[in-house]
From TrEMBL:
EC number: 2.4.1.1
GO cellular component: cytoplasm
One Pfam family in the UniProt entry: Phosphorylase
Keywords (A to Z) from UniProt: Allosteric enzyme, Carbohydrate metabolism, Glycosyltransferase, Pyridoxal phosphate, Transferase
UniProt-recorded name of the protein: Alpha-1,4 glucan phosphorylase
InterPro entries xrefs: Glycg_phsphrylas, Glyco_trans_35, Pyridoxal_P_attach_site
NCBIfam families xref list: P_ylase
Family listed: Belongs to the glycogen phosphorylase family.
SUPFAM superfamilies reported in the protein's UniProt record: UDP-Glycosyltransferase/glycogen phosphorylase
GO biological process: glycogen catabolic process
GO molecular-function term, one example from the UniProt record: pyridoxal phosphate binding
Cofactor(s) required, per the database record: pyridoxal 5'-phosphate
């Protein structure tokens, strides 16, 4: 233990006094949270400094994980657990009449991410710290995180997420590490042919550091988030009018003001590009300036530094590193290319064409003239080197094409590793989306199936299950997740299976209580909790789930012989503010909830709860309570998924298509312990290539499908109003791009299979246990070990 009880208690009292000039008895839970977090930060500060010193003195290789998103979730509880002071702090707080839950819940969640990609970054940072790997995060300190979702008349309304209001006790502003980021201007070449960038606008990038604490604080890594501030030198300060200065300040601050500004307009897009360059440039400048303190030759960079780019959003790392090496350190092109190529590695998270980032060349040319020149030259060299390749291959592989810069191509060509995030996804990268690049650089492509943090998703979110596991197989699984497999010895033990059910029921009751208190909705903990929690996107097919519920609803009210185990359908997720159709699906589900939940004919056999503002904290409540995990994306479209792993770990049975990591889940649990339906990869690819899918035909020939689809537009759901028309059109007029109708029957069958499986409770509990027992491979610790070994070549420092 890092500290004894009395000492910690005294520190906390002192901290409250310092922060508020009040005694701990007279402050609020939020205030206690702030002071407690600061006390913890102080407690680990020696370890944080020592860690940095060790890495510096031993010249250990370090990784910098560049990501536009880090969705950390609340930090207090995880940190208390990792420092092994949770119980102690709980009892100290009790001394002052505070409940630890209330204090934990008063932490505002930093919503610095959209979904899977941002949450993965946070799980990875957690694993790195716990494995003793020197890996630091580099990102943006958005003033406003992911919007807060509210519902009005069933529609999604977006409210600003002012998460920094008040104090963020975890961060330290590092004024003296400020960097300058330059935009615009012109470039000329001096007599030595060196590029001179002039007449640019400057922005200050101020870093805020957050400690990433490993178990017992043996390792404390750093998450560095950059904030944009006005940069004026003395002469400007003396000459600029006050109002002009404020105008400029506002303009500058916009860069780090919000996560993912709406990119449906050019103005929004430009801001996004500014963001990308901002944290890339600031991060790299600070890394190189630290590296130079080692006095090593710059050619040593790849041996001491690995830079990982989380999807293409930080791809400007490539030309920016080249720029620093050439224009500031005076290396030649060839040397700079060698260093860059051996330093940067890239993860791809999507094969959806519309999400593959490409920037109009003129945007880059105007905003980042020197960077654009470097990209052009890299493209020229690529073309020169591969001039022997056929026209078609070159068309697909060049960096610049038809006036656009293709970031994924730049990332593959100028890095040493490209990985996908599940086996199928990596396969599709190699054989479909990046086929030609793969043929040129086959050795660069590799798979790293995603993983999730066990500390957050069982130890913290489901302590009841964690201690049942401890009592059954011992605690080794907490350090070595593959040891969960020891649970396989208990799958026929009736006492264990009963206990699994007891734990699940505790979590279901807790969630039911939460839903009653917070949303005034009554749900039955004895019903099946069927969960779909993820961003709203057409390819994730919440629409398919909704149509099946609609169909069940018809059956329940019209067919007296139709038997249905009471089921609570739980939804959570946001739609991008500009994603019109996804918002219509949200409206549909809310309308269904309105009608079904209040229809006496349903007799509570169906309930729908759409939890507003789904975020990490809500996930922590929902996931332990889930019986069924809906993973129903169109095959090929979900790169991996990670909620599938969290739900499996917590004993939910997966209802899934053969997509993303679902395939690997099936491989782990076997066909009897998962329910699979729908088109597979080949069938989807064939339809797409042969253009022979006909949704209207299905609609015309299948009366069930017709009835359900018609219910979107025939007034069956009065609350939906005209909002069903767009969904109807997407299925019929636009020929159902995501094969919802094609998979409808098979999905319905699968959902009935789930129903009948749940009736056999013993067998169900066994399946549940098998899911938990075989989830070890999906620990992000395991994933990160593979990144460390195969990609980064870094070792733990303890
Ligand atoms: C978003 C925009 C551009 C490129 C990629 C994305 C993206 C992909 N955002 N989130 N993802 C998800 O990443 C997760 C972590 O790898 C995957 O599990 C999931 O399937 C992706 O959709």
């Amino acid at each position: 233990m890092l500290v004894d009880r009395e000492q910690f208690k005294e520190e906390l009292i002192k901290q409250v006094k310092n922060d508020y000039s009040q005694s701990i008895q007279s402050v609020s839970a939020t205030e206690v949270y702030i002071s407690l977090a600061k006390t913890i930060r102080h407690l680990i500060s020696d370890r944080w400094v020592e860690h940095k010193d060790t890495v510096r003195n031993e010249l250990s290789k370090q990784v910098f994980y560049f990501s536009l998103e880090f969705m950390t979730g609340r930090l207090l509880k995880e940190n208390l657990i990792k420092l092994d002071i949770y119980d102690m702090v709980e009892s100290i707080l009790k001394d002052f009449d505070f409940s630890i839950d209330e204090v934990i819940e008063s932490e505002r969640e930093p919503g610095l991410g959209n979904g899977g990609l941002g949450r993965l970054a946070a799980c990875f940072m957690d694993s790195c710290a716990c494995l003793g790997l020197p890996v630091n995060g580099n990102g943006i300190r958005y003033n406003y995180g992911m919007f807060e979702q509210r519902f009005s008349e069933g529609n999604q309304i977006e409210w600003p997420d002012d998460w920094l209001r008040g104090d963020n006790p975890w961060e330290i502003r590092k004024e003296n590490r400020t960097q300058i980021v330059k935009y615009g201007g012109t470039v000329r070449f001096d007599e030595d042919s060196r590029a001179i960038h002039e007449n640019y606008d400057m922005v200050h990038a101020v870093p805020y550091d957050i400690p990433l604490i490993g178990n017992d604080a043996k390792t404390v890594n750093t998450l560095r988030l950059w904030s944009a501030e006005l940069s004026l030198d003395d002469s400007e300060l003396n000459s600029i009018e006050y109002s002009k200065m404020e105008e400029k300040r506002t303009e500058t601050k916009k860069i780090t003001n919000v996560l993912y500004p709406d990119d449906s307009t050019d103005e929004g897009k430009l801001l996004r590009l500014k963001q990308e360059y901002f944290f890339v440039s600031a991060g790299l400048q600070s890394i190189i300036s630290e590296f130079k303190k080692t006095k090593l030759s710059l050619s040593e960079i790849p041996n001491k530094v690995a830079i990982h780019i989380n999807d293409t959003h930080p791809t400007l790392c490539i030309p920016e590193l080249m720029r620093i090496l050439m224009d500031e350190e005076y290396l030649e092109w060839d040397e700079a290319i060698e260093i860059t190529k051996h330093t940067i590695s890239y993860t791809n998270h999507t094969i959806m064409q519309e999400a593959l980032e490409k920037w109009p060349a003129h945007f880059l040319k105007n905003l980042l003239p020197r960077i654009y020149m470097i990209i052009e030259e890299l493209d020229r060299r690529f073309l020169e080197k591969y001039s022997n390749l056929d026209h078609e291959t070159l068309k697909n592989t060049t960096i610049i094409s038809e006036g656009y810069v293709r970031m994924a191509n730049l990332a593959v060509i100028m890095s040493y590793s490209t990985n996908g995030v599940a086996k199928l996804h990596t396969e599709l990268l190699k054989t479909e989306v990046m086929k030609d690049l793969y043929n040129i650089y086959p050795e660069r492509f590799n798979n790293k199936t995603n993983g999730v943090s066990y500390r957050r998703w069982i130890e913290s979110a489901n302590p009841e299950l964690a201690s049942l596991i401890d009592n059954t197989i011992g605690e080794s699984w907490r350090k070595n997740p593959l040891d969960l497999a020891k649970l396989n010895d208990y799958t026929d033990d009736p006492i264990m299976l009963d206990k699994i059910e007891v734990v699940k029921n505790i979590k279901k009751e807790a969630f039911a209580n939460f839903v009653r208190q917070k949303y005034n909705i009554i749900i039955d903990p004895k019903s099946i909790f069927d969960v779909q929690i993820k961003r709203f996107h057409e390819y994730k097919r919440q629409l398919l789930n909704a149509l099946n519920i609609l169909y069940m609803y018809h059956k329940v009210i019209s067919d007296p012989n139709f038997k249905m185990h009471p089921t609570t359908y739980i939804f959570g997720g946001k739609a991008a503010s500009s994603y019109y159709r996804a918002k219509k699906v949200i409206k549909l589900i809310n309308s269904l909830a309105f009608h079904i939940n209040s229809d006496p004919r349903v007799k509570n056999r169906i309930k729908i709860v759409f939890v507003p503002n789904y975020n990490v904290s809500l996930a922590e409540k929902i996931i332990p309570a889930a019986n069924v995990s809906e993973q129903i994306s169109t095959a090929t479209m979900e790169a991996s998924g990670t909620s599938n792993m969290k739900l499996m770990l917590n004993g939910a049975i997966t209802l899934a298509t053969l997509d993303g990591a679902n395939i690997e889940i099936r491989d782990q649990v076997g066909d009897d312990n998962i329910v699979i339906f729908g088109l597979n990869k080949q069938e989807v690819l064939d339809y797409q290539k042969n253009h022979n899918y006909n949704a209207s035909e299905l609609y015309e020939n299948n009366p069930d499908i017709k009835m359900v689809v018609d219910s979107l537009v025939n007034g069956f759901l009065p609350k939906l109003g005209y909002d069903g028309i767009d969904l109807y059109d997407s299925l019929l007029k636009e020929n159902d791009r995501f094969f919802v109708l094609r998979d409808f029957e098979s999905y319905h069958e699968a959902s009935l299979q789930i129903q009948s499986m749940y009736r056999e409770r013993k067998a169900w509990n066994k399946k549940s246990l098998i899911n938990t027992a075989n989830a070890g491979v999906f620990s992000s610790d395991e994933t990160i070990k593979r990144y460390a070994q195969d990609i980064w070549n870094v070792k733990g420092i303890y």
